[in-house]
Structure formats: structure tokens, C-alpha cells
Amino acid sequence: MAFPKGEGIALPFISNDGKYVVLVSVTPPFSDFTVLRIYREHRFGGEDLRATYKLKDIWTADELEAHANLTSNSRPRWFAGSTLGFSADSSAFVVRTP
């Protein structure tokens, strides 16, 4: 499980039940880069990619414009100040952006 070459390193989040892994990109964001990859444990071993999200999928146009300065390595990551994690019952991965 990894991001395609050029989309960088991922920070893993694992659900409490161990059935889901969300990989969060820590590279500078661009609206066309995938920033979240959600995997679910496969019944017979291995894993299945369930969903991918780009910034333009989770942020409005106004949010993209407001955070446009986060495209440099010297700037905070796209999720800086946000709350990331699974819901208490592990049924959802939640991203709350300030």
C-alpha cells in the first residue's frame, strides 16, 4: 500500500478494529494529487482499496484557494491544524479542517 511515485510519503491511520487503513499524503498538496487512500482488510488476506480522495474532492473551491499557500515544502502540511481520525465505531474516517 503506497502512493504512486511523485505523490509522496503517506502517514497511516489504522481503525480500532484493525479492518481499515487510511493513508494520508504528507507531501505538498495540489488539487489533483490523491491525499487519502482508504483500504479495507480483505476477507482472505491482503487488502482492498476502497476509495481515494483528492483535495478537490474534500475541499470547496474557496478552501482550495484559501490554502493555496500550502504548496511549498517549507509550509505546513495540507492537514495542519485539522483533526484526522476514525469515528468511535470505526465506521468513518473524519477530516475536520480549521
Overview of the structural elements:
By secondary structure, the chain is mainly β. 10% of the residues lie in helices and 36% in strands. The strands form two sheets. Strands 1-2-3-4 form a four-stranded antiparallel beta sheet. Strands 5-6 form a two-stranded antiparallel sheet. Strand 1 and strand 2 form a beta hairpin. The chain starts with 9 loop residues before the first strand and ends with a strand.
Summary of the model, kept short:
This protein is mainly beta. About 10% of the residues lie in helices and about 35% in strands.
Number of domains: 1
Approximately how much beta-strand content do the residues carry? 35-45%
Helix and strand succession?
EEEEHHEE
Q: Given the structure, what is the number of helices?
A: 2
- Straight-line N-to-C gap: 29 Å
Helix content: 10-25%
Radius of gyration: 14 Å
Shape: globular
Strand order of the largest sheet: 1-2-3-4
Looking at this protein, list some descriptive labels.
mainly beta, 98 residues, four-stranded antiparallel sheet, single chain, two-stranded antiparallel sheet, 36% strand
Secondary structure layout plus pairing:
Layout: E1 10-14, E2 20-25, E3 34-41, E4 47-54, H1 55-58, H2 61-66, E5 83-86, E6 93-96
Antiparallel strand pairs: 1-2, 2-3, 3-4, 5-6
